Amino acid sequence: MKKGFSLAELMIAMVVAGTIAALTIPVLMGGVQNNYDVLYKAAFRTVEQVVHEQTNDLSEFPNGLLDNDVVSGNNHFCQDFRTRINTLDGVANLANCDGTNSAIPGSPNFVTTNGMRWYGVEDAFTGGTPSITISVDVDGASRGPNTRGAANSDIFDIIIFETGRITAPAGAETTFLTQ
Fold first, then answer.
1. Cα–chain-centroid distance for residue 34?
2. 1 is a domain residue
3. For residue 104, with 0-12 CB atoms within 10 Å meaning exposed, 13-18 middle and 19 or more buried, which class applies?
4. Is 34 part of any domain?
5. What count of Cα atoms within 13 Å lies in the side-chain half-sphere of residue 175?
6. Element at 131 (helix H, strand E)
7. What is the spatial distance between Cα 24 and Cα 21, in angstroms, rounded to a whole number?
8. How far apart are CA 177 and CA 179, in angstroms?
9. Helix H segments across 57-152?
10. CA dist 131 to 14, 104, 114, 158, Å?
11. Which residue range is the domain that position 95 belongs to?
12. Do the domain assignments include residue 68?
């Protein structure tokens, strides 16, 4: 009586397992990217809503621009943005609006309760360019690769102009919004 498997039987089992893996891994990886698509769209829509509220709040930004509160003379876009995001998603006690953000994936300006980490939210629109670029780690620090620009990147940008216009840079972000 024979015990065990022959070499041919093992080879056939390996070919079958390899074929199944070759068919399922791309589907699973595509699912991760689709998840980033949904998360980025949610972050973008949240920014749209918050910035719309800000530009329409003449008590905070009476000139309709996000660059400066002409009443107090203080630039406070980040603090106001953080407070308004708090009313939408809740914000952890991690306020960092002093312009000393470390490199991504370092310390964010703040983290929303859905786990998204927000970087680059500044108080002032300066440097000759009337815009700031916010970077969002859409799935938080504990999941995903925490990279940008790579095939499975989970950190994406949103550009906010002092006029309240919002756009996405060319690349995955633009693709996500047009799908």
1. 14
2. no
3. middle
4. yes
5. 7
6. strand 131-137
7. 5
8. 6
9. 77-89
10. 55, 19, 26, 10
11. 7-178
12. yes
Phi, psi of 112 (to 5 degrees): -80, 160
pLDDT in tens, 130-159: 788 888 888 877 776 676 666 667 888 899
pLDDT tens digits along 12-69: 999 999 888 888 776 666 555 568 888 888 899 999 998 898 888 887 777 777 765 5
Taking the complete model, does pTM exceed 0.90, yes or no?
no
Q: Which residues contact 30 (CB under 8 A, 6 or more apart)?
A: none
Amino acid (one-letter) located at 1: M
Looking at the domain assignment, is residue 2 inside a domain?
Answer: no
Q: Rounded to whole angstroms, how far apart are CA atoms 26 and 51?
A: 37
**Following DSSP, what letter does each residue of 145-159 receive, concatenated?**
---SSSTT--EEEEE
Cβ atoms of residues 159 and 149 within 8 Å: no
Contacts 24+ apart (CB under 8 A), 100-106: 104/135, 104/137, 104/146, 104/148, 104/155, 105/137, 105/141, 105/146, 105/155
How many domains does the chain fold into?
A: 1
Provide the edge-to-edge strand list for the sheet that holds 166-167: 110-111, 117-119, 131-137, 155-161, 166-167
